[in-house]
Records
---
Amino acid sequence: MSVDEIRKRLFELQDTKYRDFQSKLIPNIDPETVIGVRTPELRKFAKEILKSGDYAEFLSDLPHKYFDENQLHAFLISGMKDYEECLNALCNFLPYVDNWATCDQMSPKVFKKHRPELLPKIKEWIGSTEVYTIRFAVGMLMEHFLDEDFSEEYPEMVSKLRSDEYYVNMMIAWYFATALAKQYDAILPYIEQKKLDTWTHNKAIQKSVESYRITDEQKEYLKSLKLKNIKKE
């Protein structure tokens, strides 16, 4: 499908009330770029396009004009079944990702079968200077490397990140909160030894305490490890 055809379809799927609501959730993007297509509709449209195989023109049309086009692009990448095609498309797209929603909703299913090959790319992305490339890298470590493929090398990498960017630090906090739920004994020393900056440290504890996967006893101990002088959000 051509870019114009895809854009026309997106406007046909527009929900103006949802557009107004969604714009408030992503304050760093221009509200004028939000069409207002609901996520289930975008996913459905992405599946239709993938089935047709006619998406090369759209994927190469970067940067996109509309937020919803970025969302659609993310869902197309997430649904690709060939690892190399998916990875190439992702590497081309990552520099243009400009918001947390597109970043976080991009989760390629094919990565589950290619974790060993994925790891060097994650290490490359985590060293980027781009906010959402770093956020995506940490998100992939959280999604794919906190269970049977866990290694203490990974939280060590994340703990060394330092950024003034809210959306990077929030993902680091989310990573450590999730890691505490899944690998408590291995992750607790990062909190006890204060290996994160103060804001991220406290936010990780806050998110852990809010989790149903952390025991009450663990929550009480984590609360005792909170630091003073937290930066304002």
---
Amino acid sequence: MSDTPVRVRFAPSPTGSDAGSLHVGGARTALFNWLFARQTGGAFVLRIEDTDVKRSTIASEDSLMDGLRWLGLDWDEGPDIGGPCGPYRQSERLYLYHETAQALMERGLAYPCFCREEDLEAKRERAMAEGRPPRYDGACARIDPPVAAMRAESEPHSVRFRVPEREVQVPDLLRGEVVFGVEAVGDFILLRPDGMPVYNFACVVDDAAMEITHVLRGEDHLPNSLRQVLLYEALGLPVPVLVHVSMILGADRTKLSKRHGALSIDHYRAQGYPPEALINYLALLGWNPGDGREAMSREELVAAFSLERLVRSPAIFDPDKLDWLAGLKIRQAGPEALLEASRRYLPDETDARRLRMIAAVIDHLRCAADLPEELQLLRGERPELTPEAQRWLENRELLQLVTNLLAQPLYGDGAAAAGLPAGALTADEFTRAVKEAGRDLDLKGKRLFMPLRVALTGVDQGPELAAIAEILGREEVLARLRYSTQEG
């Protein structure tokens, strides 16, 4: 198979409004497949597994595809663009599943099952109560084939696969051969009574028909791979290279769930996280480049990706690391990337001032949703002082001296060079005034800058002080200094 062009697929199930959203685990699976296809020059196929008719919706399908597009994970074949192995919705491929199931029955490898669901459920409960694995007991497997075929013409029935009584080896690129005993699984259903295929059967039929060479998915699919390997063998088909990637766990090392925080890609998109940050972070959940790098561009990820660098141990989802990468990507993109988002929070400002304001706070951002809080100090809004911050205003002499120095331009008009109106306060003028006050009063470090920061912003940390002063403007800076002199 090494000379065969790589063909991988991502096959989500569009079931329900919430389940239909692209979540972290699914996005990571799609990303690994996409990276492998792009790194090898292969094909990335999108297949929609919508055989759960009652729960599958077009809205969920659209949401999944929109999430992939936002992440920049483009596909080479799929339901919207077609391709040589279509159709790419399972609901449009029912004839293939029926033909394959019939072929297996004709060879004695599958059979009709007339058991009612309520009877099967009672047997499952009884087995579990007795400490036995809830396997199908094979009742219908013992019906004489001609009798079974005759009954199938008039009675509702499912189609079951006849599982051979032997060990099964599931080849896995990360784990070697995983061996399952004969007791691991009983005869399983291929087609439901309504004629719809179950996941494992449709998956094998489609992967074979679409010539999928590698299947990358979570290790929780190992039990599914057991059934699928049996089907590949029964159909005389080669088994694709199976790669069961590590699970994603929360910080408490339990399976990732909503209690661990935001899991939907739609959430991160709505918050204004850069898609490049999600791509970068998800790639590091179960894979590493081998050289210690963490911050990587999309192009660097494609160039470095290999199946050999996948990690078997569970990946821990760390929101703080995602935030760190998001902040890094925001700074790399620059203020212009946030200009559109800022218009919502700064409706009355010019784009030039918006860009200066974003530049002042950009080091403190991880997503666009952080803008309102960070920008409030630059919009004339000042939070109430905490007791800790209030104590910095006790140095009235410093506040008064800087007020006097800034009451009129002292160092020539550098406003034009900074693209500001004549007489406007520049960051450079503010800095020079503060340094002069520091020399006169023999103040440095926090004793010099903290009273001024608290006076201008009401808090003891934040963006560069000179940038804040330039954005606030001379009149507002003087007003806040004079107010703080009275307060101190």
